[in-house]
Fold these 2 entries.
Entry 1:
Amino acid sequence: MSEPQVWDDVDEYFSSQLSPDDEILLAALRDSEAAGLPAISVTATQGKLLQLLAQIQGARNILEIGTLGGYSTIWMARALPSDGRLISLEYSARYAEVASRNIARAGLDKVVEVRVGPALESLPKLADENPAPFDLVFIDADKANNPHYVDWALRLTSTGSLIVVDNVVRGGRVVETDSDAPDVRGTRAAIELIGSHPRLSGTAIQTVGGKGYDGFALARVLA
Ligand SMILES: C[S@@+](CC[C@H](N)C(=O)[O-])C[C@H]1O[C@@H](n2cnc3c(N)ncnc32)[C@H](O)[C@@H]1O
């Protein structure tokens, strides 16, 4: 058995025991695939981790940057109380439509709002609305803009909020100091911002299996 197969099997074992997809989540993945969306959602184990983090935060307000078909959105929104709110920002109107259908089927359309457009245009508009601080921000869009997203997340959160950045390993390329790839540069800049910012305390965890080598950065907002 090759190593990658072992890690896929381990991920499959954990998700089958701890975070099995139900019919709603499976349908979200199925309909996303049928609509031609790329298969780049978080895995079920990662979705469950996001849900647990939202619960640990006692989250009432969640911001997601990068909706795709709404798979991670559903995992997180299920942690919200009935009067909670999740705003998810998505560049593609077509993806947002697929996501909205998946979210409605999950019975979450009262708490989830998908906003279409480049996140760097949606975020200032959102800030102008003076929303309640977000308890959890999940950043999972174009990686080149990760430092800008962390910066916006800081403006839209308060002490004790949690910021999660997905895909920080980049298949190991995150350690390539001289890379000029925008995703690597953006990810490194976000990690370095988290590491150096006086109001952030962060770490990163590497993940393997399901979708290959990857990882999350997590940062708690300090006073
Ligand atoms: C990795 S996918 C999100 C996966 C989703 N969070 C999940 O796990 O189910 C990244 C998404 O970010 C969107 N995206 C890319 N650039 C964006 C931008 N500038 N503003 C908003 N969304 C963007 C893409 O269209 C894509 O749907």
Entry 2:
Amino acid sequence: MKQCFVIGGGGHARVLLHGLRGLGWQVAGYVAQEPSSAMPVPWLGQDRCRLASPEGLPGVAFLGVGMVTSAPWRRSLIEAFLAQGFDLPPLITHNAMVHDDVKLGDGSVILDGAVVVTGSRLGRGCLINTRAVVDHDCVLGDNVHVACGATLSGGVRLGADVMIGTGANLIQGVEVCAGAVIGAGATVVGDVTRPGVYLGTPARRRQ
Ligand SMILES: CC(=O)SCCNC(=O)CCNC(=O)[C@H](O)C(C)(C)COP(=O)(O)OP(=O)(O)OC[C@H]1O[C@@H](n2cnc3c(N)ncnc32)[C@H](O)[C@@H]1OP(=O)(O)O
């Protein structure tokens, strides 16, 4: 049986456990700052400590750390595990739909009900959450989160560390710069060229 461990011990890590079981992975446990009584698998130690002494960990890890705002630190976490020699394959859960020519970077996760459409390219550590849509020819930098039910129309481009909130919508072809946060329910109808928090319909930068 394929053995792996999960990085992270919060709600997103538990979601990942379901996805991994559905795909036949045996999860040895998780690494996180501290143990969590909600996790049904063993705590294998603190993430940074286990990076320094990785003996006994399976060679394959999945990134189970969520993000609710722009979180560049998450990118360095991925890079640290890769640099230590762990394999962080992308994860597509059983009920997600990803067209076969889509490119996914290490550590990216596509959750149940999400759809990622032909021609799209996602960087490392992207999270396409439950029922989100990334339509054709989108380009996502590293460490982008498209939260539950959000929609990227065709040809959208997102820089690194972008957060797209739950239920937000981006029309075709818009570009969002690195580090921007699009609030839940916002509608983006033009390029976002300055980092910041964007809210409403049409989305405007919060002062
Ligand atoms: C499986 C999962 O759970 S994945 C997680 C998914 N999570 C998300 O999508 C979260 C997205 N985050 C948001 O939308 C957040 O509200 C943010 C980032 C836009 C703003 O967060 P904060 O900076 O903490 O703002 P805060 O909650 O203090 O609100 C400040 C003001 O903005 C308003 N506001 C907050 N979010 C929004 C929004 N999405 N749209 C419109 N107004 C908003 C608040 O009502 C408040 O208004 P007030 O000053 O008139 O009372």
